[in-house]
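Slide 14.
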Amino acid sequence: MNEDYKPRFSFEITEEQKQRADRILNDHGMRRTMFSPILDDILDLLEQHGKVIYGLIADRKVKPRNVVPSLAQAASKAEKLR
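Slide 15: predicted structure.
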């Protein structure tokens, strides 16, 4: 394997999501910093609870911030700072 190789995780997003991300996540490295822990939490949840997690989030029966530990913790701490 080439030592310069870095795995990527990519998927399509809407034009609105791209515009928002470009506006909000505009510092170098911010996207990776933000999304790596979220990906780890989602993968942990899927390993622990199976595809029911996928179904709950994909069907919008729950908000990701209510089930993804890193998002729940961030939302709680942000509320306390207000």
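Speaker note: The helical segments are 15-24, 30-49, 52-58, 64-67, 69-81.
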